[in-house]
């Protein structure tokens, strides 16, 4: 088992929230762990073999399959398009305020941090994702 998969499972067993921003095999390991919130970009969904293409339908189907396997939720960031949030019970299209992009590097990390802060402050997951 991978380090990230073990870590996510151990933290879940200790009743800690896990918010992960990973790709490839590390994302797959966390996707198999219960209770985690996995943030992954549309490009990483395709490159990692989770989704066949980057259409909304393909991304939603892949995220639903991932949630069925373990994580609490999958958040798919989509650059200029609204993000997708998939839980066992609901699917959300998350629109956030438009901002002027100066440099896209670090945007996913910032989004993940915003989700973690929102959850840490007691927000419901959809509201935490809307912070970003």
Secondary-structure map:
Elements: H1 3-13, E1 19-21, H2 24-31, E2 37-41, H3 42-47, H4 56-69, E3 73-78, E4 81-87, E5 91-94, H5 107-120, H6 125-130
Parallel strand pairs: 1-2, 2-3
Antiparallel strand pairs: 3-4, 4-5
Helix pairs in contact: 1-2
Q: Give the DSSP E fraction (strand runs of 2 or more residues).
A: 15-25%
CATH architecture assignment: 3-Layer(aba) Sandwich
SS content category: alpha/beta
Q: Describe the biggest sheet?
A: 5 strands, mixed
Helical amount among residues, as a percent range? 40-55%
**CATH class group:** Alpha Beta
Report the strand count: 5
Strand neighbour order, sheet with most strands: 1-2-3-4-5
Order of helices and strands: HEHEHHEEEHH
CATH superfamily: Ribokinase
Give the N-to-C terminal Cα separation.
31 Å
CATH-assigned fold name: UDP-N-acetylmuramoyl-L-alanine:D-glutamate ligase
Q: How many whole angstroms does the radius of gyration measure?
A: 14 Å
Structural commentary:
With 132 residues, this protein is an alpha/beta fold. 45% of the residues lie in helices and 19% in strands. The protein has one domain (3-130): 3-Layer(aba) Sandwich (UDP-N-acetylmuramoyl-L-alanine:D-glutamate ligase), CATH 3.40.1190. The chain has 6 helices and 5 strands. The radius of gyration is 14 Å and the shape is globular.
Give a short overview:
This protein has helices at residues 3-13, 24-31, 42-47, 56-69, 107-120, 125-130, and strands spanning 19-21, 37-41, 73-78, 81-87, 91-94.
